[in-house]
Amino acid sequence: MPIDWKAYDPSPFYDELIEARGRPRAAARRITDYLSSLDDAEIQARKLAAEHAIVEMGISFTVYAEGENIDRAWPFDIIPRVIARREWARIEAGLVQRMTALNCFIDDVYNAQRIFADGVVPEYVIAESKNFRKQCLGASPPHRVWAHVCGSDLVRDRDGTVYVLEDNLRVPSGVSYMLENRQVTKRVFPELFESTSILPVDEYTSQLFDMLAAISPRPQDYPSVAVLTPGIYNSAYFEHAFLAQRMGAHLVEGADLCVGDDDCVYMRTISGLERVDVIYRRIDDDFLDPEAFRSDSLLGVPGLMRAWRRGKVGLANAPGAGVADDKVIYTYVPAMIEYYLDQDSIIPNVPTFRCVDAKERAHVLERLEELVVKPANESGGYGMLVGPQSTKKQRAEFAQLIEKDPRNYIAQPTLGLSVAPTLCDEGLEPRHLDLRPFILQGVRTDVTAGGLTRVAMRKGSLVVNSSQGGGSKDTWIVDEED
Amino acid sequence: MLSRVAERLYWMARYIERAENTARMTMAFNTLALDMPRTVELSWRGLVLAATGADAIFDEHYQREDERNCVKFLIADSYNPGSILSSLRAARENMRTTRDLVPSEAWEIANELYLFARDNADAGLTKRGRFDYLTSVVRRCQMLTGLLAGCMSHDAAYDFIRLGRNLERADMTSRQIDVGAIRLLARRDDPEPYEGLLWISVLRSQSAFQMYRQHVRRRINGVDVVRFLLQDVPFPRAVAHALSRAEAAIECLPRNGIPLRLVIQARRHVLDADVDGLVRDEGLHGFIDQMQREIAGIHNAIAATWFPADRVQDAA
Fold it and tell me: Of A108-112, A172-176, B106-110, B120-124, which has the strongest mean pLDDT?
């Protein structure tokens, strides 16, 4: 039986593909029409083809369970999420604006600290931030850019407004899945790529390489670039290997590198030591250099901070960039945009209560049942309280946590995340999703056309993280005027 | 290429070769056991010694050196780092971390191979299931070796793979010759009538029986078998052949001075050996002992030259 769009009902949520029952959005019309032209067997065949492609291409993510590492096939829904190009242009501009302001902020924090002096952001939020690194004070990385790679999570509420939920400035992952999703979709729906103008995403790895090459301390030479991974036990190891391969960079672990007496970074090769110019590091600050940060880290490279501070090696993202990746700092981003760029923010923040403020805290504690409470420094959806789905006991626990460490908590209203039609075991159903575009900033700024759409595959669930049962979709930026 | 990557590829190849050899030896010994009259008691422990040299670990974990315990130790024992399953697990882990350098099918085969060996280990322990299990392990190992030979660029990464494979092979074959037939017999009341069978078994454990028959047209005897397995350059599992292939791989690598000198020396010692004299004067064991030390010396030189200095994997 072919898909009957009249039977598909996303209400009360905003649907990315369907405007109202039976009426697709303009940018999505080609795909919805096409899907209804296929019968059930054909749809199942496409779904199977996608599953095969995923296994064949070896797209996996790693889960550590039962004392062993298991590579799981990447969960993927064949129906793409579609965004009209005109809407995307505005989002893209908003992301560039945000990233620029964030980099101004990080550079300011580690140097002049004007924004504190001018009273726009209170200084204590930095002093108590887990991701502030005093070892970075006074450093000036090339182009004064600290966060080179950012993955910002966007969500859409019931009324269609797109918000930035958070900015991941430490080691955001997922971009390889965005690229692979597109490869799979091209195999599954080649016809649609012929008839629809879908913006390509393939340039990402060359843009990444160019950005990295631009922070080389020896820009005149062909730079030697390495991707630094914590190793195979990391859940994003697939991505580290993927990016290294696509960029023609070395995939290195901490023990492969050493810092010489000349403060340059070298890798140990079969021909002896070879200099490394730029490191795209996928290790958290804490583990980067046992001399500067955690001395028990076996993942890092002793002396790496020294080499970076002396300008002998480029590090992306720069150490300390994570200071802006904090949910309390997040609340000040619109103020930063105004302060540094003298602009209004294009994409709004989700309204957020800071528990550190006594008045806002009282408000939060009163309304825990309605709000989502998040710790300031966690990622991956851990350590959260989702008010409407919580028990009384959990709320009591969180009330205590907040009272004990108010600086570390923020609260937001529970958003009715947008949905998109998804092929589930139960048939075609609306599922909640978000979007993580990736922004590269160096001399220039590039934003991926779309990004990684993550879907909560379980009915009613709002959790999209792959470690917790999330899946993904290809994201199409479609040019309607074409 | 990175030293760490070189080291992992080298060990991956060694572990695959080790698993394959252990499977062959167990299979050959099993066949021999079926042929022997019941009055002759075969020493399964001798097989353990021949295959792994790890009899101390065996003694630590087992009271009785019977067939069941010995086969379990060789196939599935996690205490035994040289068991088929341990070797395949180690090979797989080494390949996981170098996936970006080897063809993706190779990773899939290595992964499936380990999962097969793990999931079917119980069948491998039974007398009836053993042959199928071991044959399957050998074939899959060969498939992996073939795939790497046929689909991977023969660059430095590949040189480390064939280096590991050939060094392990030289080591396993020489160990087999040493412990060989004589020690496999627990009681030596009257070994003479079965000597032919024993040597055939030794040849079989290197899949050398057929090639031996084609090249040595005499009644099977110990001296000829030892000479064949030690010195026959065209036969790929002979020590001299394996060393010459290791030498060819080393020649392609940078800064190869010390390892190259050692491997040439070892190959010359093998080819120059007077096998007749060694057997006659009971000097064979001493010679093989020396051989094994030389092979270990080549490994150490390889590790010191090309592998990361701070964490070289244990040679166990």
Answer: A108-112
Query: Comparing C-alpha atoms, which of B47, B87, B91 is closest to residue B70?
Result: B47
Bigger pLDDT: A227 vs A462: A227
As a whole number, the mean pLDDT across chain A is 90
pLDDT at B314: 41
Token pair, residue A224, equals 């030697």
Give residue-wise pLDDT tens across range B151-203: 888 999 999 999 999 999 999 998 888 766 455 444 445 556 677 777 888 88
Give A138's Cβ-side CA count (13 Å radius).
6
Give A-chain residues touching B310 at CB under 8 angstroms: 255
Instruction: Give residue limits of the domains in chain A.
Output: 87-165+202-341, 353-413
DSSP-derived secondary structure letter, A337: I
- Residue A168 tokens, joined: 């991941």
**A249 touches A227 (CB < 8 A):** yes
Q: What is the pLDDT of residues A270-311, one digit of tens each?
A: 999 999 999 999 999 999 999 988 888 778 999 999 999 999
Of B2, B93, B104, the CB nearest to A256: B2
Q: Classify domain A87-165+202-341 at the CATH class level.
A: alpha beta
The residues near B153 (Cβ < 8 Å, ≥ 6 apart) are none
| Chain A residue with Cα closest to B115 | A70
Region label for A362, one of left (φ > 0), alpha (ψ between -120 and 50) or beta (otherwise): alpha
Q: Above 50 in pLDDT, residue B311?
A: no
Q: What is the pLDDT of residues A183-225, one digit of tens each?
A: 999 999 999 998 889 999 999 999 999 999 999 999 777 899 9
CATH no., domain A353-413: 3.30.1490.270
**β-pairing verdict for A68-73 and A60-65:** antiparallel
pLDDT at B188: 44
DSSP state of B313: P
Q: How confident is the model at residue A67 (pLDDT cuts 50, 70, 90)?
A: low
Instruction: Indicate the range of A179-188, A383-392, B187-196, B287-296 predicted with least confidence.
Output: B187-196
B2 and A271 within 8 Å at the Cβ level: the answer is: no
Contact B4 A255 (CB under 8 A): yes
CA–CA dist A319, A269 (Å, integer): 26
ipTM metric: 0.77
Q: Which residue has the tokens 């880290």?
A: A297
Q: Report how far residue A329's alpha carbon sits from residue A341's, in angstroms, rounded to the nearest whole number.
A: 17
Q: Rounded distance, CA A371 to CA A356, Å? A: 16
- Among the partner-chain residues B100, B306, B309, the one whose CB lies closest to the CB of A245 is B100
Q: Are A438 and A204 in contact (CB under 8 A)?
A: yes
Chain B residues touching residue A256 (CB < 8 angstroms): 2-4, 308
* Best residue in A270, A299, A301 for a mutation probing chain B (most B CBs within 10 Å): A270
SS3 A5: helix
Return the domain boundaries, chain B.
3-306
The alpha carbon of A322 is separated from its chain's Cα centroid by a whole number of angstroms, namely: 13
| pLDDT reported for residue B312 | 40
Distance between CA atoms of B25 and B201, rounded to whole angstroms? 9
Q: Strands A257-259 and A265-269: what pairing?
A: antiparallel
DSSP state of A68: E
Q: Residue B1: its chain A contacts at CB < 8 A? A: 269-270
What is the reported pLDDT for A1? 64
Instruction: Enumerate the residues of chain A whose CB falls inside 8 A of the CB of residue B6.
Output: 270
Q: Which ranges in chain B belong to alpha helices (H)? A: 3-35, 44-52, 55-61, 67-75, 84-96, 104-119, 121-125, 127-151, 156-184, 195-204, 209-215, 222-231, 239-251, 257-272, 275-280, 284-306
